[in-house]
Each structure stands twice: as C-alpha cells, then as structure tokens.
Write a structure and sequence with these properties.
This protein is mainly beta. It has one domain (about 1-80). The protein has one helix spanning about 45, and strands at about 25-30, 60-65, 75-80. Strands 1-2-3 form a three-stranded antiparallel β-sheet, with no helix packed on it. A hairpin with a 6-residue loop joins strand 2 and strand 3. It comes from Thermaerobacillus caldiproteolyticus.
C-alpha cells in the first residue's frame, strides 16, 4: 500500500520557490481543488483525472505549493 507522506503527516518537506527562493507552503493535493466534493472522493480515482501523466510502478501524489513571499504557485510530485 502506497501512501503520501505529506497527506498522512508522516514527514515534512522543505521546498523552496523557483522564483524567489522563499519557503513554499504545502496547500495539499491538486485534486482537492477540482470541486467541493473532490477532497472526499477516492484518491486513486482522482489521480486518474488530475491531468498529470503517471509512470507505471511509480506512485506519486501531486501537491500544490504556494509561496507567501511572491505569491507564486508550483506543482510538485511527492513520491509515495
């Protein structure tokens, strides 16, 4: 069973903005922003609809990160 370490609070990652090098804030899974019910849908089903390519045998959770300094948003792939 593969789980996202960020979604499940197993670890924290320090990531930095590609624009200003400020520390990024994790805003959660990209799929949670699709509509009001997205956060409650099956995670594996939502991964098929997120628009990002998947690599067979490599499990990733797509997260949105936000920079509070320059307001830049970045999508990062988190290995499960």
């Amino acid at each position: 069973m593969n789980v996202c370490p960020l979604c499940n609070g197993l670890r924290e990652l320090s990531m930095y903005c590609s624009q200003c090098q400020g520390k990024l804030q994790d805003q959660g899974k990209v799929t949670d922003y699709f509509d009001d019910y997205s956060p409650y849908m099956d995670i594996d089903m939502m991964k098929r609809a997120d628009g990002y390519p998947t690599t067979f045998g490599y499990h990733e959770c797509v997260h949105l990160f936000y920079c509070p300094h320059c307001h830049h948003e970045e999508v990062r792939f988190i290995k499960e």
